[in-house]
Amino acid sequence: MTYVLETERLGKQFAGVPALSGVDFRLAPGTIHALIGHNGAGKSTLVKVLTGVHPAGSYDGEIKLDGQTMRFGSPAQARANGISYVPQEIQVVEQLTVAENVYVGQTGLARGPLVSFRELRRRAAELLARLDVPLDPSTPVGALSATQRQLVMIARALATDPRVLILDEPTASLAGRETDRLFGVLNRLRETGVTMIFITHRIPEVMRMCDRATVLRDGRSVAELERAAFNERDIVAAMVGRRIEALYPRRESVPGEEEVLRLEHVSVPHPARAHDVVRDVSFRARRGEILGIAGVVGSGRTELLSAIYGRLPHSGTICVEGRERKLRGPADARRAGIAMLTEDRKGSGLLFNFALRENVTIGNLGGIARWGVVDRRAEGRAAQGFVQSLQIKAPSASADVAHLSGGNQQKILLARVLMNAPKVMLLDEPTKGVDVETRQEIYRLIIELADRGVTLLVVSSEIVELVGICDRCLVLADGAVVDEFARGEGSEARVIEATTTAAPPVGEVLA
Ligand SMILES: Nc1ncnc2c1ncn2[C@@H]1O[C@H](COP(=O)(O)OP(=O)(O)OP(=O)(O)O)[C@@H](O)[C@H]1O
Ligand SMILES: [Mg+2]
Fold first, then answer.
1. From ligand 1's centre to the CA of 86, what distance in Å?
2. Residue ranges matching CATH 3.40.50.300 in the chain
3. Is pLDDT of 327 > 90?
4. Which residues are CB-neighbours of 298 under 8 A, at least 6 positions away?
5. Which CATH number is 5-240 given?
6. Model pTM?
């Protein structure tokens, strides 16, 4: 068989450290090919070589397209040869509209020196309709959620009508319904002959969508599987190099009785429209309790956390340890002992071009300063402790975070929040883009923090995860609490039932 895309003995090093070694990768025509492996395994690096981000000359070995050796000098060259790429990190220009972001960098549309904006909008609308995305092409991207931005990036990749579409963790920030929608699009593309490489950490997605799979481990290809041989346990075993037992660690202790966080009738108005995105939410959370918040993207879960963190104006009352707090900004929240880990790595203050150490310790200076002086040694030790327990894979504590893999960047943000030893911790998608082993590590940390008396609010798109680790779980739909259950009482089916029976009108889900 002639493969569409193929690599031979592909090797890639960064400053002498191998990220890929001797990788033979084969992409069969008309398939969706899963590329899986733990954080730092080399998945993004492989696709960056295939798409000219790492240009010819910066890697060893060969890339073949339809059996012919190619030497891409840039992503534009790869695109011109029909290979399109949706990177792991969202890259949009906030000031531009959806349409402009979809066609950014494309000159083919220009007639004379000017691009016809009407034409841009028309084509973008067509593409978005193909993607089944209810977005107005003239909306500025700055007003969109992370999910919507993701969809804009996928539309951009499709704008060149590629033969090969490469998606680097496209589902990491999507919840059930959005993922279904995306999978519908990918299935249709496959039917029209588009070949795809699909990177994910979610094995059920591989089982559901993919025809073949390659497992990378430490920069080497350790397994190439056909659909008939797909088996969840084998895939995980190939990824981690051994079998792992239960994914969800057991919580032995129980939360305390004392109330730490109380919300009374909290509502958050929509920034532009007349309705509320969080509607009359009331609950109490106890010391050391792990409280899950389930709901689809757009159900108000992120907005609820943002309100508690003082980022969004809200009505109603928020009390910490029985005392009402006026939370007008994150500084107020931090003073009240509330910390937050957000889902958007780039937007939420990972300092690119700063070392890992600084990224962990920033914002925490108060915690380690003694008599107003920052104790650098203590700071370094504390940071090092988290780097170790979270298994952050980096050459050293002074490595630039821009060069770390996506999952490792997520771990750094988590370490930063942990350094503050807060009373209440808000975690938005803490395991987004994180591999199975690290996931377990994060679950263990969540439980350990709860055991130490921290109250945790966890938002996740993965319902089984919430059911697995939370003491109690609230289900949000359309901004309101529609169900609540305690550990042992919940299930994925129950959450889906609660969210779908209370489903908001179509078209509002993404709004
Ligand atoms: N530009 C770079 N400079 C230096 N090192 C890099 C660079 N890009 C990647 N690396 C290193 O190469 C290795 C592989 O990284 P890569 O991003 O390919 O992992 P990944 O499999 O995509 O992981 P994740 O699931 O976390 O996204 C990591 O150790 C990473 O730190
Ligand atoms: Mg990656």
1. 16
2. 5-240, 259-501
3. yes
4. 145, 147, 504, 508, 509, 510, 511
5. 3.40.50.300
6. 0.67
